[in-house]
Design a protein that fits this description.
Radius of gyration: 29 Å
Largest sheet: 4 strands, parallel
Oligomer: single chain
Strand order of the largest sheet: 3-6-2-7
Number of strands: 14
Distance between the termini: 52 Å
Shape: globular
Length: 561
């Protein structure tokens, strides 16, 4: 008797695939069943899970969400839900990328009524409206974040919170695709605000190196100080009075991140400083070859950077060191959902900074107090300058307390975040969640101080918690964007795959390993310069080896050596 194999039905394909993918997500490794037309999907998810670095469930879900959104595999959503393809009723709804990101909700015990935050910071409300006018295509949360950076910069470690000795530094990174969300334009309006308030000097240089930043924060007067005219000395004295408390506007922050990832020398010093600045330590010491140890007193940094997800992807993938060593937890990421950019051109005309925005900042700065500063010029018997001595007064501090109602609300929020953190499927968020509850208190203290209050009131805290929740959403957005796209093959990866395919083909045909010229004969649509660069990178990565054959250079797999 002849047994004829029955063809695999669509229903069986779906059942096999769903069963296997459920086990794959949970970490089980079993023999793959016949998945029929879903085989390419299954292989893609297998590859993603294999490179998940211990965060299999999160990466799997992010990848599935991305594939559902792309509609690359029609019927995928129904298959995963155990429905028959086409079973869903009504018109296919548009998929919102925001809904694809899994963001655990706060428990009811930590949620505050929206009405509590009314009137918490009228200055910030006005700033947001002005920033929208000047940068109409900016992502909604960018305007708010930039306004908070302005406040954090002006505070300059002069606001103290009696909650484990906290101050108010905020290091904020705007993360979005280039040209789609007006990152740079929106951030630069915050600099304009400081300029209009007469406080631009708090930022130091427009562009500086890590070495120069560290040196400037030490606060030594320049050697040519005595040659400056009185006006320039006056301007410089303002900076020297508060040398270690400054704002830093850093465009293209992704380039700095790449350099920090490579490490070495001054980059190690800078990374160490950034790690400690958020902890508000009393001092920071680093070594130099020319001047020995340098000591920064009461360091404080309010950072506003911008970058793209692609620029920091290599340092932000699941399980990467920047998550696990606590580096990323020091930063506030503000990230728009994908596909939410605006088309909203500038209005005609100029829009100077309103006086009712700039004047309160100036008054607040003066109310916080300014250290005294005196530069003593040392001279020899011929009246030649032999040295300079900087005599700096103590940095004033204003203590902002939490009233009991706010403290209890903070405890509930803290407990809620810790509970959510324990239920997440990755440990990468641990540091960020722990520090988020502190960042919220810092924001509330800024509101209270600007308001002229010595106590954080419930309106200040309610607004701060709302902002912190937006930042928590952005954190998940960033993580989703850098991880789910990490598994989408780049152009370079596709070229690498083609190079490997050609090498394998030559090997199977018993031909000598191919040359660059032979690669170009097969890959006619790829620029030869780009092809040479990819092959060269594969050699440096020890994927390929280069051997000389007369004048020709041939390329084969390193393992074949």
């Amino acid at each position: 008797m002849v047994i004829v194999a029955q063809p695999l039905t669509t229903q069986k394909e779906n059942e096999n695939t769903k069963w296997y993918l459920d086990l794959l997500q949970d970490g089980f490794t079993i023999e793959r069943p016949d998945c029929g037309r879903w085989l390419p999907l299954v292989e893609q998810l297998e590859d993603a899970c294999e490179s998940a670095n211990g965060n299999r469930a999160f990466v799997y879900q992010a990848m599935v969400n991305s594939l559902v959104a792309s509609q690359k595999y029609p019927g995928l959503k129904e298959m995963l839900e155990g429905k028959e393809i086409g079973q869903a009723k009504g018109k296919e709804q548009e998929i919102d990328n925001f809904s694809l990101v899994s963001i655990p909700a706060l428990p009811d015990t930590a949620i505050l009524p929206q009405s509590l935050s009314v009137g918490a910071c009228e200055w910030l409300d006005k700033y947001i409206e002005y920033s929208k006018l000047r940068s109409p295509e900016g992502f909604e949360d960018f305007h708010e974040a930039c306004g908070l950076w302005v406040l954090s910069t002006i505070a300059g470690r002069r606001i103290k919170i009696p909650l484990n000795e906290q101050y108010t530094p905020l290091m904020i990174i705007l993360v979005a695709r280039s040209g789609a969300y007006a990152k740079t334009t929106t951030a630069n309006k915050a600099v304009d605000m400081l300029q209009a308030s007469g406080l631009r000097w708090l930022l130091g240089n427009d562009r500086t190196t890590p070495q120069k930043l560290l040196t400037d924060m030490v606060g030594e007067p320049p050697k040519h100080y005595d040659d400056l005219d009185a006006d320039k000395q006056f301007q410089l004295n303002k900076r020297l009075a508060m040398p270690a408390q400054r704002g830093w506007r850093y465009g293209e922050f992704g380039e700095l991140v790449k350099a920090l990832g490579r490490g070495g020398g001054i980059m190690d010093d800078l990374k160490g400083l950034l790690l400690q600045l958020d902890d508000c330590l009393d001092s920071y010491t680093y070594g130099t070859q020319s001047r020995g140890d340098e000591r920064i007193e009461k360091p404080y940094l309010a950072l506003l950077g911008d970058t793209t997800p692609a620029s920091i992807r290599s340092c932000s993938k699941s399980g990467s060191d920047f998550w696990t060593d606590g580096f990323w937890s020091r930063f506030i990421f503000v990230t728009p959902p994908e596909g939410t950019g605006k088309d909203d051109p500038f209005d005609l005309g100029s829009f100077p900074v309103p006086f009712d925005l700039s004047r309160p900042l100036r008054d607040w700065h003066e109310r916080l107090g300014i250290p005294t500063i005196a530069i003593e010029v040392k001279r020899d018997e011929k009246n030649k300058v032999t040295g300079l001595n900087c005599v700096r007064g103590e940095l004033p501090e204003t203590t902002i307390k939490l009233d009991q109602e706010v403290y209890q609300a903070w405890i509930r929020y803290r407990s809620a975040l810790k509970k959510i953190m324990g239920e997440l499927q990755t440990e990468d968020f641990d540091g960020s969640y722990i520090r988020l509850m502190i960042k919220a208190v810092r924001v509330a203290a800024l509101f209270a101080s600007l308001d002229g209050s010595e106590t954080i009131q419930i309106k200040h805290w309610a607004r701060a918690q709302e902002i912190a929740e937006r930042w928590r959403t952005s954190l998940h957005q960033l993580y989703y964007q850098v991880n789910h796209k990490a598994h989408e093959p780049t152009k370079e990866k596709r070229i690498e795959d083609e190079v490997l395919r050609i090498i394998q083909k030559f090997k199977e045909q018993n031909k000598p390993a191919p040359t660059i010229r032979q690669f170009t004969q097969y890959l006619k649509n790829i620029d030869s310069g780009k092809l040479k660069m990819v092959v060269s990178d594969m050699c440096r990565s020890e994927i390929l080896q280069e051997t000389k054959d007369g004048k020709a250079k041939r390329y084969s797999l390193m393992e074949e050596e």
